[in-house]
Amino acid sequence: MNGFAFDTVPSIVFGSGASARAGAIAGRFGRRAALVTDAGVVRAGLLEPAVASLREAGIAVAVHDGVVADPPETVVTAAVEAARAHGADMVVGLGGGSSLDVAKLVALLLRSGEALADIYGVGNAKGPRLPLILAPTTAGTGSEATPISIVTTGAHEKKGVVSPVLLPDVALLDPDLTLGLPPHVTAATGVDAMVHAIEAYTSKSPNNNPVSRALACEALRLLGRNIRRAVHHGSDPQARANMLLGSLLAGQAFANSPVAAVHALAYPIGGRFGVPHGLSNALVLPAVMRFNAEICFEAYCELAPHVFPDLAGAAGRRGADAFVEALAALSRDVGLAPRLRDLGIPADAVPILAADAMKQTRLLVNNPREVTAADARAIYEAAW
Ligand SMILES: [Zn+2]
Question: What is the pTM of this model?
Answer without folding.
Answer: 0.96
